[in-house]
Amino acid sequence: MDLPSPRPNIQRLQTYKPNFGKSKIHNLIRLSANESALGASLNAVEALKIFSGDLNRYPPQVSDELTSAISKRYSLEKKKIILGNGSDELISILAQTFLNSNDEAIYTEFGFLQFPQAICIAGAKGVVANDTNYTANVDNILSKVNKNTKIIFLANPNNPTGTFLPKTEVMRLHSSIPSNILFVYDAAYSEYVVNNDYFDGSELVDTNENVIMLRTFSKLHGLASLRLGWGYASKKIIENLMKVRGPFSINSAAIMAGIAAIEDLEFQNKSIEHNLKWMSWLKTELQLLNLDFQPSITNFLLIKFPNNNRHNAQNAENFLASKGILVRGMKVYGLSDHLRVSIGNETENLRFIEELKIFLEN
Ligand SMILES: Cc1ncc(COP(=O)(O)O)c(C=O)c1O
Question: Any idea what the CATH number is for the domain that residue 340 is in?
Fold first, then answer.
């Protein structure tokens, strides 16, 4: 007898493959996953050291302490907060909760990869709206809306492009769609943004029932290993998501560390300053090397390589990997001429540019 076969849409799916390296080189420099350059808040590390939660006990289904800390830090309504095992889990359960097989969900051309993955796993139809200059385009998104559209996914700023839509454009998009479409606004990198024309979307949630803002502890707060994300949405959305979310998907250690991290404003401000300083430095260095890149407002840069000679993106990725430096190839996004590079600590950034120069000179 044959094994049971997975659903056809699962058979078509590719497994998500991060670039964490296969190299045996020690002290790998990992600039491939947009992680925090300065590690985590020492308060969070300390909280884990003294963590003495009963290991035999399940974690709370909803941590009042953590949702209170988030609500205080960002001045949001506590009852509208949902926690997830990373914001990835929330993206998945949004698709599972709302999409039927004949529904359509729109995502942008170079939008975050988890959106089409989640739509496909849910068994619905993903519809791509083309970008303009590597940036989401509101008119293109609106042109894809029809009676079958159930969700619009938008990461703002977007990964892997680093580009963003100003608040006015996001508001125009939201006000142009019917209220029976769910607007998923993923603001994973919002804490790094200093531009005045950007907004994190929370005020849209406060005034509309069809919006969810997604956030994460994996970037600025440096807790990627603990898998902790959160969403902010109307009570109706949260109630339904809670039926689908794993009942205990946020573990007790993540809760402890999350509370300590979100209260550590000093670490957050230091990380933002570090990011601004090194982003500006990296952009200057890349310009000196005649490499083109997108004007990122995040903690990573999408860099374009020539495609007609040996200094192409694939060779650059391989060369850097041979030197113990991991960056993210972009073939999976259809951007094979590009590499995405996160801002690292001082030593990592200097080493990256040093090796990139050697690659381009040879
Ligand atoms: C736009 C965007 N959303 C969500 C995530 C997932 O974050 P988490 O670690 O909370 O699952 C990422 C991670 O790279 C991201 O880039």
Answer: 3.90.1150.10
Together in a domain, 70 and 213: yes
Rounded (5°) CA angle 343-346-349: 50
Choosing from 17, 20, 32, 88 the residue with most ligand 1 atoms within 8 A of its CB, the one to mutate for a pocket test is: 88
Question: Nearest to residue 295, comparing CAs of 175, 203, 199, 157?
Answer: 157
**What is the count of structural domains for the chain?**
2
Residues 349 and 330 in one domain: yes
- CB-ligand 1 contact for 45 (6 Å cutoff): no
CA of 309 to the centre of ligand 1 (A): 33
Q: Which residues of 29-39 are buried (b: 16+ CB within 10 A; e: fewer)?
A: bbbbbbbbbbe
Are residues 238 and 285 both part of a single domain?
no
Is there an atom of ligand 1 within 6 Å of 329 CB? no
CATH label of the domain that carries residue 187: 3.40.640.10
Q: Which protein residue has the closest C-alpha to ligand 1 atom 3? A: 188
196 and 300 assigned to the same domain: no
The pTM for the full model equals: 0.96
Q: Does position 153 have pLDDT exceeding 70, yes or no?
A: yes
Token digits for 308? 């007609």
Higher pLDDT, 357 or 307: 357
> Of the ranges 4-8, 38-42, 237-241, 245-249, which one carries the lowest mean pLDDT score?
4-8
pLDDT over 80 at 24, yes or no: no
Q: What domain range includes position 328? A: 8-39+266-361
- The residue to mutate among 186, 200, 221, 223, having the most atoms of ligand 1 within 8 angstroms of its beta carbon, is 186
Q: Which amino acid is at 306?
A: P
Same domain, 234 and 291: no
pLDDT band at 23 (very low <50, low <70, confident <90, very high): low
CB 188 near ligand 1, within 6 Å:
yes
Burial class (CB in 10 A: 0-12, 13-18, 19+), 174: buried
Task: Let me know whether 171 and 81 are in one domain.
Answer: yes
Ligand 1 contacts CB of residue 87 (under 6 A): yes
